[in-house]
Amino acid sequence: MMVLAGAAFAASLVSLPASAAPSPSLIEANDVSAAAWSDCPAARMCIWTGLDGNGGIGYFANGDANLGAAPGPSGLNNTAESAWNRSGSRFCFYDGANYSGFLGDVLPGEQGNIKPEYRNRISSLKTC
Length: 128
What we know:
CATH class of the domain at 41-128: Mainly Beta
Distance between the termini: 11 Å
CATH superfamily of the domain at 41-128: Crystallins
């Protein structure tokens, strides 16, 4: 949950296809080819620098406090445009390093392009 001006609401970073039930997510609705997502290992949260699972990829078991610092995947700070949560855990995403500035979450099984208002803003992520 994110609190803004005293009101709590669920932030959504991804949208599911129109046939799926609504959830608090960062993914936007889209039709994607399964082949574009094939590099994401099972039991991981994956993010890509391009839409539809294209571009550079980073995958995480638990998250990363600072996508802009080593060690960890390089080139992912403020560049994520698509995501797939293949883990069994909810992942929370943040605008700042060290889990500051909550943006929203991606539930297990959610896959798609990050909503335009959240693209290229993610600096940290973790299970939550």
